[in-house]
Automatic annotation (TrEMBL):
Belongs to the exbB/tolQ family. Keywords: Cell membrane, Membrane, Protein transport, Transmembrane, Transmembrane helix, Transport. Residues 68-187 form the MotA/TolQ/ExbB proton channel domain. The chain crosses the membrane at residues 6-27, 110-134, 154-176. GO terms for biological process: protein import. Signal peptide: none annotated. It comes from Marinobacter vinifirmus. It is a multi-pass membrane protein. It comes from the Bacteria. This is Biopolymer transporter ExbB. InterPro entries: ExbB/TolQ_transport, MotA_ExbB_proton_chnl.
Length: 208
């Protein structure tokens, strides 16, 4: 592997660095964007039971706020529920904007990696071909061994760049879609909370 990287030239260094960074981001996002972490059903059902039994207090609100990103959004609305529907909605939207920003954390760098690694590979291809033509100019085309280094450098960097970019792009698209699904779920729960608190909807929770 080291010989392969060495044959790819100096541009293999940033490509390998991008691959390590992309892998770290992908693993972190898979862990952080789990539905059981962002919007755990048990915490939400417990909130509905607290509301139905009129057991909601400051201590339980604080526990809800620290339980999950969705709990943080709902707690932000409940804290200001006494000020009316519009203020409650604004509080939810304000908290949700911060939560969404955190859910999208590292996705821009991952998208950047997916964009620049093919360009790094292309740059390596250009540099490799320049070396090939330089060898041809100096020694002609009779000795294929003199040309092999430049050609291999061109091919290796291109392949390496694409090998990093393709999985990074797939994961970036997947995480964007995953965040969208989680946001829709949080919006539905927030709307339900506003309607329940202001008497427009009955609580219907299994086991509540």
């Amino acid at each position: 592997m080291f010989e392969l990287l060495k044959a790819g030239g100096i541009l293999m260094v940033p490509i390998v660095a991008c691959s390590i960074l992309a892998l770290a981001i992908v693993l972190e996002r898979f862990w952080s964007l789990r539905a059981s972490r962002v919007a755990p059903p048990q915490s939400i059902n417990e909130l509905w039971r607290w509301i139905k039994k009129k057991e909601l207090n400051g201590r339980k609100l604080k526990a809800l706020q620290g339980s999950s990103p969705l709990g943080r959004v709902l707690a932000g609305g409940l804290i200001n529920a006494k000020h009316g529907r519009e203020v409650m909605k604004e509080s939810i939207e304000h908290e949700a904007s911060q939560v969404i920003h955190e859910l999208e954390r590292f996705l821009n760098p991952l998208g950047t990696i997916a964009t620049i690694t093919p360009l790094l590979g292309l740059l390596g291809t250009v540099i490799g071909m320049i070396k090939v033509f330089a060898e041809i100019q100096l020694a002609g085309v009779g000795n294929a061994g003199n040309l092999a280094g430049g050609i291999s450098e061109a091919l290796i960097t291109t392949a390496a760049g694409l090998s990093v970019a393709i999985p990074a792009l797939i994961c970036h698209r997947y995480f964007i879609r995953r965040v969208d699904e989680l946001v829709v779920n949080m919006e539905q729960e927030a709307i339900k909370l506003v309607e329940v608190v202001h008497g427009d909807r009955e609580i219907d929770v299994e086991g509540a």
